């Protein structure tokens, strides 16, 4: 039997040492992270509902914590995560109809998803702070 060539030593599957991170790759990872963040953010939402349904002092405690700088920062991040995850879902919905798979279309959808989530978050918070007074 003929001698077979020696095996080339390479990883069994691609990983970050092989691929350089692309913008669409990073946004896919961010989409997953925002999904996890939304899971934990629901705890804040349930806490708000329970505080509103129970005593006025419980609601006052929640309001004081949510109204603090750190609380507002967390709520701002939760708002962005919700919108970013929703825009990412729309992007995946478009892909379900076999559209937007070209390199330019993929990049455009990803950029619109990021820019739209940031812009809409800022607009919503400006409106909310203006209404609050």
UniProtKB/TrEMBL annotation:
Transmembrane segments: 29-50, 62-87, 108-131
SUPFAM superfamilies recorded: Fumarate reductase respiratory complex transmembrane subunits
Keyword Transport appears in the UniProt entry: no
Chief place of localization: membrane
Annotated localization: Membrane
Organism superkingdom: Bacteria
Named cofactor requirement(s): heme
Keywords: Heme, Iron, Membrane, Metal-binding, Transmembrane, Transmembrane helix
Annotated PANTHER family: SUCCINATE DEHYDROGENASE CYTOCHROME B560 SUBUNIT (PTHR10978), SUCCINATE DEHYDROGENASE CYTOCHROME B560 SUBUNIT, MITOCHONDRIAL (PTHR10978:SF5)
Function, as annotated: Membrane-anchoring subunit of succinate dehydrogenase (SDH).
Family: Belongs to the cytochrome b560 family.
Oligomeric form and interacting partners: Part of an enzyme complex containing four subunits: a flavoprotein, an iron-sulfur protein, plus two membrane-anchoring proteins, SdhC and SdhD. The complex can form homotrimers.
Protein name per the record: Succinate dehydrogenase cytochrome b556 subunit
């Amino acid at each position: 039997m003929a001698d077979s060539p020696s095996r080339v030593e390479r990883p069994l599957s691609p990983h970050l040492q092989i691929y350089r991170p692309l913008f669409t790759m990073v946004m896919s990872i961010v989409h997953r992270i925002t999904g996890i963040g939304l899971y934990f953010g629901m705890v804040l939402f349930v806490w708000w509902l329970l505080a509103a349904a129970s005593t006025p002092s419980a609601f006052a405690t929640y309001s004081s914590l949510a109204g603090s700088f750190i609380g507002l920062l967390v709520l701002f991040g939760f708002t962005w995560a919700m919108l970013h995850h929703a825009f990412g879902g729309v992007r995946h919905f478009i892909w379900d109809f076999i559209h937007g798979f070209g390199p330019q279309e993929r990049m455009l959808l990803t950029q619109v998803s990021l820019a739209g989530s940031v812009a809409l978050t800022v607009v919503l918070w400006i409106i909310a702070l203006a209404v609050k007074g």
